[in-house]
Amino acid sequence: MEIVYFGILICSIAFFISAIYISVFLKRLTDVTRSLGYTLKDVEEQFGYITPQLMTTIKEAQQTVDELEENMNATDSVFDSVDNVGKSINSLNDTYKNYKEKITDEQFQKQLKPTVELIKWGEALTQVFKKTKV
């Protein structure tokens, strides 16, 4: 009978130790849960403060993107004009090449001589004008 009492005593001690470990574990779990609750409360308050500012920033970014789109659309005509100028220059070059192929160098020099003389006289007049102006 003593062995049965001794076994019950050992089981009681083991149960007592298990109960202490479980209570310590539950106490720590309670502390962690409470700390997590405080942290989440602070996070919620901070989100309450940040959310309106974030919405304002998003609206301003959207306005900036809209303005940028308008500006890009406004520059389309500039690029179209540059494209047209490039096409005109290519057309002029093709015309000049066709003309140059049809005419000999002597004829070209003869036709170009008045233009060269005009450029020389224009440069001379510019130089005289500069000297009289100073």
Roughly what percent helix? over 70%
Given as residue ranges, the uncertain stretches (5+ residues, pLDDT < 50) are none
**Shape annotation:** rod-shaped
Average pLDDT, rounded to a whole number, is 88
How many angstroms separate the termini? 135 Å
Bin the strand percentage: under 5%
What quaternary form is this?
Answer: single chain
Strand/helix succession: HH
Structural class based on helices, strands and sheet pairing: mainly alpha
Structure notes:
It contains 2 helices and no strands. The chain has helices at residues 2-102, 105-133. The chain is rod-shaped, with a radius of gyration of 47 Å. The N and C termini lie far apart (135 Å).
Reconstruct the topology from this structure.
Blueprint: H1 2-102, H2 105-133
